[in-house]
Design brief:
This protein is an alpha+beta fold and about 250 residues long. The chain has a seven-stranded mixed β-sheet, with helices on both faces. β1, α1 and β2 form a beta-alpha-beta unit. α2 crosses α4.
Length: about 250
Amino acid sequence: MIGHPFHVLSTVDSTNNYAMARVAEGPVAPGYTWFAMEQTAGKGQRGKQWLSTPGENIMLTTVLQPALGLHQQFMLSVAVALGAFDFFRKYAGDETRIKWSNDIYWRDRKAGGILIENVLRGSVWQYAIAGMGININTPHFPDHLQNPVSLRQITGREWDTLELAKDLCTHLENRYSKLSVDTYPAMLAEYKDNLYRLHEPALYRINGEIFQGVIRDVLPDGRLCLEKNKEILELGFGEVEFIFAR
């Protein structure tokens, strides 16, 4: 069960790195979760860093053993994203969305991110290392960050980060425990129902070109269907950049 056991680290370079090191040493029980009060080199998607003032935000990683094939990786991503979405919407309200592929947004601002790294033994998907960073109590963000938001900024109050982290684990377990090949179509439909910018004209960049496009769908394997000049582009991770007004 996700969050059992739940271990608090005072400081660590990255909870994902820490979890990776533990599974390299030997078997780790599925659901084992590490929460960091401070990360010195937090990891985001595509090599980006996730930084936070100590104790201010949720930074955790849980170890999972999906009963899935490697070709079904996006199924896990959907379940984890929905769990994080359920959690944040509970406190921030109905303007919460999932930005493809698995960021958590409130209006046009990023509240959290997810990074899932895989551990393979040959062709066997032995572990999924699911890391999450969610902005909880940050009052102000550096100007160079594009569009962040914290739960404190949304609600006007401070929160108990550790208690919220345990509640996040509960929401993750609720989604993950129900994930299967049979339940995935309904889960994917719910994911799309709460997708940021779905059917809304907005700006994107591909290969240096900025254009107005419309997200039309997300395929079961995770590819984004983006309409550009009445043509549907099927895009993989890292192939398109969302453009935001400053």
